[in-house]
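Hi there. Long-time user, first ticket. I'm pasting a complex I've been working with (about 1072 residues overall). I'd like to know whether the download I got is complete or cut off, because the file seemed smaller than I expected. Thanks.
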Amino acid sequence: MATRPRLQILILIAAALGLLAPLAAPAQDKAPRKDLVLKGDAVCTRCHDEGEEYPVLSIGKTKHGTLADGRTPTCTSCHGESPTHVNKPADATERPKPDRMFSKASLTPMESRNEACMTCHRRDANRSHWEGSTHQLRDVACTSCHQIHTQHDRVRDKITQTEVCFSCHKEQRAMLNRPSRHPIPEGKVVCSDCHNPHGSVGPKLVKRDSVNETCYTCHMEKRGPFVHNHEPVSEDCMNCHNPHGTVVENLLKARAPFLCHQCHTPHGPNVPTLLGRPASSSFPSVTGGKNPINITQGRGCLNCHTEVHGSNNPSVTNPTPQFRLR
Amino acid sequence: MKSSRPPLSPIFLALAAAAVAAPAQAQQSPEVAALANPDRASLSAGIVAGSGTEKDRTIFGQYNGLRKDDVNWLLDFDLVNRDDATGMWTTIRGRNLGLDSRELGLTLQRQGDWRFTVDYSELVHHEIRTLNTGMQNPGSTNPSIVRLGTPGTGTDWDLSLKRTNLGLSGDKWISNNMQFELTFKNEDKDGARMWARGYDCASYVCSGATGAGVTKWALIPVPEPVNFNTKQIEAKFNYVGEKFFMSAGYYGSFFTNTNGAVTPTVPNQLNGPFNITTGVSPLATLNPAVAGGTSLQDVLQLPMALYPDNQAHQLYASGNYAFTKSTRSTFKLAYTHATQDEDFLSMGLTGAPAGRSNLGGVLDTTLAQLGVTSRLTPKLSLVGDVRYEKRDDKTPIALYNIEQTTLWNNGRVSSEKVNAKGEASYLFPAATRATVGVDYEQLTRELPPATLTGPDRVIIAGISGLRGETQEVTLRGELRRSIGETFTGSIGVGHSERTGSDWFSLTTATYGQSMSYDQIYNRTGTFPFNIADRKRDKAKVTADWMPTERLSLQFVGEYGQDKYDPPSQNSLREGYMDIVSLDAAYAFSDKWKMTLYGSLGHQSINEADRAAYVADTKNRSTAAGLKLDGKVSPVLDLGAGVTFVEDITEYALSPDSASSASNITQNAIGLPNTKFSQTWFSFYAKFAATPQTDLRFDLWHVISKLDEWSWGYNGIPFTYSDNTTLTLNPNQEVTFVGVRFITRFK
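Hi, the file is complete. Here it is re-exported in full:
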């Protein structure tokens, strides 16, 4: 909204220009209106301006408003020709809505809304798998995430992108502030670093073809293969990790030994035990490294099974590294 | 929410007048140009100062660059310019330039023709705990372990990892239908992270007696030295036809590790194993002079392998095809050749089997995907999708293990995975869409040779059986109302069942036999959760309601439950989660807005080691936030907010019928809860000093509490055999004040 001094100046400008207009072009009263921002926008900008709920002229600041690019749209490319909106039928009590509206309360079908975008953006490799993607099938509109009429599209800014994603993904919002996390709140890692919201071949819309291949883009050292592989590692990182944040170090879903015991026969039998916690009478008789404290505290099982992602140690002499000890 | 405005806004009046008055004007009026021209340049410079010491900021300052120093510079800038005549964009941006999380980027783009981008960024991850040790050269490939007389009397080391990234990317439209894209990313990752080595020396390795004076057990800290480099390059051609789109390209990724192994120097005396029970630290000899044996000192000084270099090359074709306007398909074909052939000796690793100088690791992956979506009628849509992935592990087998008289090979596992999806949805009245779907996943894994003897033998330890194949079928349904003036929402449910083939026995007596569930059933056996039978139920409810133009409310509720049924009573038994979340946004006026959210979630895991314990781990997660933003005057913006997160995990241990008396007692002692919470208060004020300059003031107050027992409990630290400890201030409170001057040049 214009401020009051600005409003007064504008009215004065308008008035001055209006007074001069008959002198300058007395024969052009019925001349066609000029486009203001986009090619062919005059039909819309004769009524709509920056004071709208969704200001229209600032689209000129965006890639859509770059007139030198012959592919850029005009208002009706997205909103439709909307003849009854442009020329209100005589018998209509209210002016009909444009053919396509994109606001949250719009009644325009999602397919129609998205087709307005995909007509052009289907040419983009990042959207090659939009059809059949989770977001497409769940009726997520492009404009649910993107703001078209503004230079600052929140979802394309690393600092503000998560706010947009978390408008639906609440569980992830709760996780990202946990002590073991990616630098998501700092905007150094964002959702779109790992996910392609426009569709992908991998599960959960991960950016590359699988969870692991996506993780390897930053954690390539884990790829191996190793002399001694740890099969669940090469199968799916998310068997053990939750990339959105956990309270256990290294984004582990659970702490050792509990995580490890979900697959492995425990050493022992041992009950997880802490230094500083009273121990049962039998505890002092437990000797050696395979004791309940060393599997519970520090790095837990990983105190000894250090190379849990795989070891490339070829040694055939004892102690052999097949248990990923070295 | 709609803004309240007069029927014809003042901007409209001015624009209309201008348009009428100068219909032949070729240039935009200044008013329009100001609203539609993207050109801008701004510089933000300031200073931020924090309270407390570095130890008070370890949780808050893991990644934001504000941990080390009390005072930091703030420097950001951005420049955007568009040449309207040519469509040429120039964008230059710098963020956090005064911090160790700095970013710098440049993009040149002639829109619709070509684009070039270069990005540089740094990121340091600081470990939240401090290492106190007598070790010399921690984080190097040759650390020297020095036992401290008393824990906590060593040198403090703050481990960190720094990533330095350089990215180059560009694209060019070669013709109206053909685009070329190229991206390159180089990353250096340097520093050290926590690692350790421990060994309970088997009698066939370390001879001699064990006692308080002569030990065969030790646990020492060995931080992993990190000097990594990764390079990724992707080049592709995109073809755009009237009905057909295809990308065909190459993606190469290369990992290089400067270091091959870490070899610690270990003294011949460290704390004995009994110090952990008595609280004292008796010195124990690691290197007893026992003829014919290897000492524990020798074992602990053996090299530990670091990550080897590896590389992968992928060729792919991916795209879509429109059979008709309402029936479209997607596809992808990809072939990846990944290798790992770093020379063992160059890594500093010896003892490889005869004839092998490197692993010769080869993993070839073939991927094929085809999907079809069709809107058969305006109301009925169908979706089908099939994905096939074959991982062919061609790594040569060699004899890498000799344990006394037992021999076995390196392991390799090829696998095939098939995913299929079918879905139908129908649009009912009231804009309500009903969807039913079925998902299928089949995973086939290569099993080891069914022999305990001979050169093909592979050993897999710590589990009772494997499974060559698993299948999972998911049935799901959803009702969704995506379109509505005031209310939208959905409710969905899903049920999955995972079953699989017979089991491959790893028990010595029946090794390699294919056994049914009943045959292999062993109450105390252990079978991996990711191949066990599983039933999963999920449900989700969402609702968006805008009762007024000023108020919007959003509710999300989710529930999920897993029940595992391995052929035993051990390992993972059940998993559970739920979360409810409520968001609200309210606009008091055009100038004052408030957002509010709260969520409460639960997760639980039930698992068992029947010989020792049953664990019922329960987690409760709470998150809430309140934010208020307003415009006090045309030149003053104010905002304040608070966020709160709390995460409490309860470790409920109980004995099993097979637990010994001592384990029953220990279960009764149990484990304490762990708790994390963080409360973050924030306030800002932005004053527009002139139309081109702002002055911004920020205040943050952050309270972080982490109460958990991994590295110590009840005042007693967990100590390595050299008395190294890791510590953390469990109650951290920090206040930061920042002031910055923002000026706009355009």
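A couple of notes from our side: Chain B touches chain A through 230 residues (CB under 8 Å). Confidence is low (pLDDT under 50) at residues 1-26 of chain B.
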